[in-house]
Amino acid sequence: MSDATKLSAEKRTDFGKGAARKIRRAGNIPAVMYGHGTAPVHITLPGHDTFQALRHTNALLTIVVDGKEALALAKDIQRDPIKPIIEHVDLVVVRKGEKVTVEIPVHLEGEAAPETVVTLDHSSLQVEAEATHIPENVVISIEGLPAGTQILAGAVTLPEGTTLATDPEALVVNVTQAISEAALEAELAEAEAEAGIEHEAPSEAAAEGEAAAEGEGAEAPAETTEA
User: Fold this and answer.
1) Is residue 124 predicted with pLDDT exceeding 70?
2) Which of 16, 66, 145, 196 could form a disulfide bond with 149, CB atoms 3.0-4.6 angstroms apart?
3) Large ribosomal subunit protein bL25 L25 domain: which residues (predicted)?
4) Please, what are the domains in the chain?
5) Nearest 5°: phi and psi at 2?
């Protein structure tokens, strides 16, 4: 992603939770921008535009403060756990041509062989890329892959200009044989047997139920007297 979203920001001098709440009530977002040995700059970002821009992973931003522009990446985004609100953003200043280390999501493409289960062990990979050319994602094809296939991070094809920072031996995709219903029932039965759980045979349970019902429904014998 090389196009940077431009956001106009204002410097702020009020800090603390009270000041941050006031900024959010006004529909804006408190943020801090730092990097390259410069002192941190506390700013206020426009709420709606910032929220939309940060919907994209590793979005490159052009922050305009007092008429001066700076390229930045969101290093940390604090979101409300319930409401769709961004509470605070940490921005790190970057420069064109500079290499940065970021996490990019992994997307799987295609379908593996029949009767297999595909597990994505790493939903993202850490890579090094130019700040102005960070890939949006990395795509891995699983089309027709048989059971037993494992794809390690080092075997993943990365976009041009991007190098892997994750451990090359890290397991990313694991394709295993799907377990049949009969095999699953056998495993459950074995587990229950080991745990000492016993199930009464259906015929025995039914016989006992019928006997109990007959006992409850039987009438007491009538008494007779002799003349």
Assistant:
1) yes
2) 145
3) 7-91
4) 5-94 (2.40.240.10), 101-177 (2.170.120.20), 181-212 (no CATH)
5) -105, -20
